[in-house]
What does this fold into?
Amino acid sequence: MSEHEHNEAHAPAVTPKLFLMVWVGLLGLTMIEVLLAYEQTPLTIMLLLLVGLSVIKAAMIIGYFMHMKYEKFSLTMTLFPMCVFCILMMFVIMPDALRSLALRP
It folds into this structure.
């Protein structure tokens, strides 16, 4: 048996019900983000929650809709450090990214 057949044999069946559940989860997280935007929470807490929820949503999209959930761990580990590097470079290139902390009285 080839390696490709071996991986397919152990991958769980991806059904439309699974995609619907993921979509509903993404919709729920988006609704929470919109609710947070309308609430008068402290800016630091709101930004941390919004970034955290966005990271969860990105992981769900990458995992299910881009089919990375069933890839080898080594492929995931080559993509993750580059994502962290890109985020860090955004802060280096745009040092004013944290100026939003001073916007709300």
Q: What stands out?
A: Residues 3-102 form one domain. The chain has one domain: 3-102. The mean pLDDT is 78.
